Amino acid sequence: MVALLACLLLTLPAWGQPRCATPHLKSLSLPRPLPVAKPIQQPTQIEVGTQLDFYSSFDFRFVPATCRLVGEHSYIFVEDSQWTGQGGGVTQAAVDSLGALFEERSPADPGRGIYDLAVETFGAPADVDGDPRIFILIFDIPGDEGFVGYFDAAVAELPLPEYRRDTLYLDAVYLVGQPYLARGTLAHEFQHLIHWGHDEDEDTWVDEGLAGFAEEVAGYPEADADAVPAFLRSPGVGLLWPASSLDVQPQHYGGTYLFMSSLAQRQGREFIRQLVAEPGNGTFGVDAAFESQGVEGDFASAWGEWVVGNYNADDQRGYRALKGRRARVQPLRDLPLDQIEGQVGGRWGAQYISLPVAGNLALEISTASPFQFWACAWQGGRAAVQEVGLDAQGLGSLETEGVDSLVVIAGRIGAQGRSYLVSADFFIPTLVREEVALPGALALGAAYPNPFNGSAQIPFVLPEAAEMELAVFNGLGQRLRLLRIGPLGPGAHLAAWDGRDEAGAPTGSGTYTVVLQSGQARLSRRLSLIR
Asked: Phi then psi for 286, rounded to 5 degrees?
């Protein structure tokens, strides 16, 4: 047995290719022909020992297989040539273990298998053949692409109804040689069957992302250990998949899985079930799920939280599937920077640029393409994230005082245009008096606590009764909140800011400016909010 396992391991292709053949089969033209005139005798009842032929879309052939297990929710068939004693390595013990995983118990739940967990999370499976059980076929997937498994929706289009079975296909060599990967792939492919039954033309990136999440649901997170690290090394690839299945790489699997896992963590699994049920595809389906669930948000806001969270995992935007990892950051150490060009290759992708220098940093951004930008300022081991807004000309700027380092996050939101320009330099902040002024002078005291999380107190002094205004502004000079407005009597006063804007919505982490205006006099102080 040891020698056989070693032999099987040696036959496994090196990773770096897609392991799920479902997108590849979607790209093949229909109809796919059956071999000519093969007699069919459909049994009235399937039991252990029943022999059936299954159709392989890869090479247009019939696969003779024998039923080796009948469960409450599944039949497991093994291609005859892959069975132990007939030249293959699949044993009854391997079949029984796979059956228990699908039917009874899983790493995620010792009392429930893949079937129950997936149905609860994604919805009821498709039923084309009228049999409530799912067929699982273990066979030799032809070719050298390294496919571990697939679901083939085109089986439902076969001209002979006897072959229209709800089937999940799993490669025999991987089941024996890499069981963790194969078992996670079984959960992956079952999600495809469920999703197809609810929304047969779903965008590939959504379907594959949820299939990756199905692995996590079953207790096989990152069944392929290379996918997430590949994405974190290349976060600019974005969420949308290549038009050709031949161009799909591990990072596409990793990115879409991470997005769906973060979405499920924040919105709950009922949201995921609704997303599968939505007839709208891609981002439209995500938007529709938010609306159907009556939840505040949309795809764009969820994506923005995810993009920032992929770097700032310690922030509230972080999520469990990252496991403390973060997207690759490209350092630019020498200031000043004068219009350095950045590029994000894929839509809904991101690039992370670090300025690992301490001091007072001024940032300028310009782009003619649809982008969204954030700045993550590190101070004393804590990070404050603030969105960098762009004006109508695609220009944005931000000043941060006393930072240890600054990370710029550029997220591409448009289908066209991938470039932007970033400039950065040190600056000398405007001198602000730290002590309360002498009697007879207008004064704006230091806010406390600073930085703050819940609420900050802002003291100020009016030398005489006067009209006044106390307001909070963002880094672009836009007024976010009017805190106090006069007239007020002379003496010391106190105002508070709870970190919300005029509409009552929470503002993001970042550095803001408190401005006291009375007559021609104007005083300002900076205040940092950390969420």
From this structure: -65, -45
